[in-house]
User: Fold this.
Amino acid sequence: MKKVLSVNAGSSSLKFKLIDMPEEITLAEGNFERIGKNDAIFNFKAQQIKEKNVVSILNHEKAVQLLVESLTASKVIKDLKEIKGIGHRVVHGGEKFNDSVIIDDEVIKEIDVLKELAPLHNPHNLTGIKIFQKLLPNVPSIAVFDTAFHQSMAKEAFLYGVPYEWYEKYGIRKYGFHGTSHEYVSNRVSKLLGKENANVIVCHLGNGGSICAVKNGKSIDTTMGFTPLTGLIMGTRSGDIDPAIIPFMINKTNKTITEIENDLNKKSGLLGISGISNDSREIEEGIKNGNKRCILAQNMYTRKIASYIASYHVLLGGADAIAFTGGIGENSSQTRQEIVERLTVLNIDLDKNLNDVRGIERLISTKKSEIKCFVVPTNEEVMIARNVIRLTSQ
Ligand code: AMP
Assistant:
């Protein structure tokens, strides 16, 4: 058995899971919030222990020290040598990385160069990598990129209809994100179908959301693009809009490009339309109370998802299955029901009882449904740990 640590480092947060491989058993997990503050939060869960500590954690290094101390103090591990590898989620791998990779100095340089494409993520992912390398210098570290799974898209799928030099000179193209989740879920669905070369449409619906068309285990298209701003309507992101709206709004409001970009990222989507919340639970509550803007937000949300599912069904030459994952996809039976109702023309049909489920892997469509529908809770950490084992055992 090999113990592997999956790590996701953000600007003021760090999430982790210690997983026993190949059994894929979680031994410990937790997260830090508000790193940089005197009242940072450290949540730690292992066996019988469930702790929430409010402590001063002024930087990521202190957080990792606390994490390592907790793993030994809780006796989850006796010796740090038991950790056989550390897998780091890295948001952007550009065109350089179509797979996970063992991190060396060259890879660190490349991730740094790619910060141009993901300025809010790659630098923090890199901070996490460097601190673990400093504190656990003998443990191999692996980068698992959110974009890598989508590198299988064909040029006709990933290019935009803009001057070709934009791609050649500046790397303007669709990269796609949530790749680790789409890969994990499509893998599970293939197993559930007992069909290796399945055509699967994965709907990752969380605060951020994207859909991926997976053919034979490979991404052939996805809704996020050059950045995670495009595609579906999300919690606070606009999803697809006409790009000409941006200069128009700059002229009308005298806002800067950065302010408009912020509006599109943080004040749009379910929040922007409902005027109430980005959280689908509050939208559902609003709908119950007859709030018209919540009804509109939900209708726009499910309409967009249904139209992408229909489009990917065609691109795939017929989907075998549709999978729902992410906070909304896993938990909101109402949203799943409303999406599928919009797809009746494809003879898809949910079983009301089976669909009444939260966070559990299960078939939710009826026997007569021509496309099977599943809820599959995503597990990006396990996917990262699998990559660590694959690359460190070669
Ligand atoms: P994620 O980004 O995948 O963590 O998903 C977070 C989102 O999932 C939240 O903003 C909620 O909108 C949604 N969510 C979580 N639990 C539920 C639930 N029980 N019903 C509906 N939506 C939920």
Q: What stands out?
A: The domain at 195-380 is CATH 3.30.420.40 (Nucleotidyltransferase; domain 5). Residues 147 and 177 are 5 Å apart (CA to CA). The first strand starts at residue 2 and ends at 9. The pocket of adenosine monophosphate is lined by residues 206-207, 235, 279-281, 326-328, 331-332, 358 (CB under 6 Å).
